[in-house]
Amino acid sequence: MAAARRINWLAISITAGVVVIVVAIAAVAVWMNRQALALAESPGAAVVNEETGAIAIGDGPNVLDEYVDFMCPFCGQYHDSFGETVSGLVEDGDVTLNIHPIAILDSRSQGTQFSTRAASAMYCVADDNPDAVYPFMDALFANQPNENTAGLDNDEIIGYAKDAGASDAVESCIEDVEYADFVAARTQEIPANPSTGNVSTPTVVLNDEYLNLTMDPEVDLLPKLK
Question: What is the average per-residue pLDDT within 41-52?
């Protein structure tokens, strides 16, 4: 009996030691992740919120946050359905649009990391010419590649950026995918659907209210404006 008790105490001690090690590893992992986020280079444009990654357009009292991945077909559908309405509300001074370019579909572009490259390019354009951001987003969705293709190459992305109003200076930023780390950091912060706990794109939040989209702005958006 004494031997058995000694063995049990030994097992408990070993288990406790393992728990301590696991907790320590988890704490180190969290610390390393926070350090990586802190080191991610953020865009210098005044229209970019360094903490949230939002590219702000307009100054209306209603705040609309759009989290979009440029490879996501549902994001393309959302932009087709809501783009004209949203841009009109921004122009009329009713809405501040916060665009959050994120990347959750890099695995769907045959290894070219199109989602990250396109999201980084949005920040490059914001740095270069904030007025070109929305036209550039329009162009990316108008020419959106299908999932499981290579996506647009950098020369195509640069061409759309310049057509939208960016200068030649945007080229190196897009080619170097300068804000890839910043995109990765912000992608981890997409709000979850409060009903399901799941994260998906597009995610749209109006005045801190998560919108469950029917893809009809007359139903999803306009009745909820202040």
Answer: 90
**pLDDT category of residue 117 using cuts at 50, 70 and 90:** very high
Q: Does the global pTM surpass 0.85? A: no
Alpha-helical runs (H) found in 143-216: 154-164, 170-175, 180-187
Q: Is pLDDT of 30 > 60?
A: no
Kindly tell me the number of DSSP H helices and DSSP E strands found in the chain.
8, 5
- Cα–Cα distances (Å) from 100 to 1, 68, 132, in that order, read 64, 6, 15
Q: Are strands 203-206 and 62-68 parallel, antiparallel or unpaired?
A: antiparallel
Maximum C-alpha span of the chain: 83
Q: Where are the domains of the chain?
A: 55-224
Tokens 């360094």 — which residue? 50
Domain boundaries 55-224, corresponding CATH code: 3.40.30.10
User: What is the SS3 assignment for 223?
Assistant: helix
Close Cβ partners of 24 (under 8 Å, ≥ 6 residues apart): none
- Provide mean pLDDT across the span 151-163: 98
DSSP state letter for 168? T
* Strand 203-206 to 209-210 pairing: antiparallel
Task: Scan for tokens 């979850």, then name that residue.
Answer: 192
